[in-house]
Design brief:
ten-stranded mixed β-sheet; three-stranded antiparallel β-sheet; alpha+beta; single chain
Length: about 250
């Protein structure tokens, strides 16, 4: 007997179908060591699932204007608004972890939006990419994004908008490199697209690098705006590939 994966999961975990779908869509459900990609996949009734428990967002800083959080991977940015009773100032893809900002004051939000437009916000990410990257590389390739109600897809295109990413290698382990990615523009999926473009796709980026892992290894590490400067520590998943992160200096 076969049934849709989310229905089997719902019965096994004694949760609603919607809750089961959300777990699968968040990339938190695995079968035989591989991430389950589609909630509607037909599977045997005897299939057994492993669920990675979603982590909670960690508070980095809060005052009367702003809240800075360390968002875990698999968490939808918009869900943080309900949890912390504030509004998003920036957002991260569900698969990306790291610094997310929420605002409490409309005048402050307007000022921040202007800083983003003028590209005066410091944005630094950490990522694990495929292959060995020996030297720093600056990628200056325009990105074109097409958006639908459900998703967005970006690609390098002469018809796109200016996009600049600088990749700095930090550590190498096996045939993977931990890199610092600094961006001066903020195009949709910019780092993911640029990494895939130079054939060093981000590990776990199923959309652009065709890479499957327990998560996408992209983390918003540092964000600076006005006199605020926030850093979000890496979670334990970044230890999976043998990198010595304890003595990492960034």
């Amino acid at each position: 007997m076969q049934d849709k994966a989310y229905k089997i999961l719902a019965r096994q975990e004694k949760i609603s179908n919607n809750a089961a779908k959300e777990l699968i869509d968040s990339g938190l459900v695995f079968v035989n060591g591989k991430k389950l990609l589609l909630a509607r996949t037909l599977m045997s009734e005897n299939s057994r699932f492993v669920i990675t428990k979603p982590q909670k967002a960690r508070l980095i800083f809060e005052d009367d204007k702003i809240i800075a959080l360390n968002k875990p991977f698999g968490k939808v940015s918009e869900d943080l608004e309900r949890e912390f009773k504030a509004h998003l100032l920036n957002r991260l893809d569900k698969e990306t972890s790291g610094v997310v900002l929420l605002y409490k004051d409309e005048a402050f939000r307007a000022s921040c939006i202007e800083e983003f437009k003028r590209q005066r916000v410091k944005k630094c990410y950490l990522a694990i990419v495929s292959g060995i990257l020996c030297d720093e590389i600056a990628i200056n390739e325009p990105i074109l994004t097409k958006k639908t109600r459900q998703s967005a897809y970006s690609k390098v295109s002469k018809e796109g908008l200016e996009a600049k990413t600088t990749l700095t290698p930090l550590l190498v382990s096996g045939k993977k490199t931990l890199v610092k990615a600094t961006i001066s523009t903020g195009r949709t999926h910019q780092i993911r697209v640029h990494c895939a473009f130079i054939k060093h796709g981000i590990i776990g980026d199923e959309k652009y690098a065709k890479s499957r892992a327990k998560r996408m290894f992209l983390h918003s590490f540092e964000l600076g705006i006005f006199n605020y400067h926030f850093r979000a520590n890496l979670d334990e998943s970044f230890n999976d590939f043998g990198f010595d992160l304890k003595n990492l200096q960034i």
